[in-house]
Amino acid sequence: MTQLVELTNTVPTPELLDAITSAQDLPEADQPRAIRTKLARHQKQALTFMQRREEGWAFNGKHPDVWEYVEHRVGDGSFVNRISDSHQKEQPENFQGGIIADPMGLGKTLTMIALTASDLMWVSLARRGNNEFASVGQTLVIVPPPLLGTWEEQLTEHVEPGAFSWCRHHGNDRLITTNDAHQPTIILTTYHTVSAEWRNAGESARSGIFSRRWRRIILDEAHIIRNHNSQMAHAICSLDGDSRWAVTGTPIQNKLSDLATLLKFLRIYPYSDKRCFDADFTNLWKNGQANEALKRLKRLAGCLILRRPSTTIQLPERRDLLCPVEFYPAERELYQDIRTRTIERLDEFLYANNADTVRLPSYVNVLQQIEGMRMVCNLGLYYRSRHDFTAQDPSADTTWNNAMAQRALDLQLEMNPVRCKDCKASLDVAFSLLGDTPEVQGLQQALLSQCMKFVCPECVFRRGGAPPVCDHTPVCPFAPVSISAITAKEAPEPAAIEFEGRDLMSPHEMPSKIKSLILQLKNLACDTKSVVFSTWRTTLDVIEAGLKTEDIPCLRFDGKIPQKERPNVINRFRHDPTCRVLLLTLSCGAVGLTLTVASYAFLMEPHWNPTLEDQALARIHRMGQTREVTTARFFIRDSFEERVMEVQEKKRKLVTVLLAPHGQGEGEEEDVGSLQFSI
Question: CA separation (Å) from 553 to 498, 509, 569, 576, 632?
Fold first, then answer.
């Protein structure tokens, strides 16, 4: 029997993000005439902030700014850095732009579109003054591939017809020239497109999108360039533009240097130079002067970062529920069998007499066995995998190949970021969800060794064909892997479902968790729409079969749906009253979608990364939602899923154990024993 339990939301805001939250009570800018959607108060305030920032430095102190001009006597003064209190005679280089860091759901995309539309108001005034040369200029918007369609959809929805135009510069849809006076006002492209053009043409190239000075450059999900040593960051920072905007809900993800890369892109003097940033911020932090570093960070944020809390807007109430489910007896028996085998694999990992090369097969198998335990919680008796029903000899053939490497990387990314052994850049599951489509997969071929050493695509490119090596003798083999969830998740999943040619299943065949979901969907009103998220397509396959049995229409949105067909799926879900349920994989549904037509969201299993869950649920609880929202997280009682939920709270220690098969510190075996106990 299923029981719903009210959840208390207790996720704290990171201290560094607290430091940059802005409390400015800004006046509201005028609504741009080219925008037909009425802007909310906070969006008009953001427009005021951006219009001020695009005027350049406010040396007169009228508005908070990094630099201020202080006159010591008539005709003699100096420029004072209000962050560090340093002085200089030379006027700082001009700076226009900033960082929009509002959290998910506050309508940042519409706000940035409104900024571009506000240029039209200026042009109209200029032409009234007989300035025949007044023009809007072109705005370059750089986004992850999943957001290309989102931007086009938002432009179509919010811009008055004929006010201005836009186009893509991506894949096969590339501009021949960007200097044509008849080119669109907004050009949409992707990070990897910019990086590829910069790489192919050479670092000093002045061709394509690098051949002109843009009116404005906007980075959406700007934290993607946080690794300042990356080729992508160098390419993005090489673009020339009058104004520069970084849009990201997480300008600081793991460390202060994340912000430093954004400041380099913005070209804000003197902090575009990482050495100056380190001197005024990072080094203070490292030297025990954290309070002073925080004070400076707050002063800097008050000048160029706009971040308001999610409570800035009043959304309908959201109820977050836990939905525990009991296994059927036969399912529990299968689960216990796989659990026993998993503990055996852990024993091999823990007590192997030989060194790393013997321990490794057990380590990889442990990850697969743990995922198998999780999948049984969803699929029940429909779960089948050769990994769980054949005894695995640690000495058996475990040749490292592309498929095994990809599987190992996917499992690691689900649990924790991986770090490049060469440049130390980190890759997490959120970044992999924003990876590019196959058109630019030449940039996506990273390498993973049998000893789990990762080399990012850019370091592979820098090596020029020289093979990487690990610290072991003999050297472990490396295999190519994709870091894009768009393509990586297309690999066959470890579980197979046998319907014996049938599309339907009888109610007594349904896995316990899926039966619980369908019972809840049946109890909802006919005009209520729901979205169902799962990590695995196989789970969605079983859910789809169960829904067909109950005559509940549904739509699918996963990695097998071609990119060009995805907008049609979303539009049908929004406008077809008979389509009540949308089934999504987290790899496709956690970013870039607005699904406010739905008021219920179901997560079929806990994910190692709670941020990914939050992103998925934000698809329905955001601006535009008019109904009360209910979210439900399913889990099986007395199963490893409860451990995953604990990991969401205390994740780092456990994941460090799972991802360090070669003993990166003392106490490894004790920690692995703790993992064994938790299973």
Answer: 22, 20, 13, 11, 20
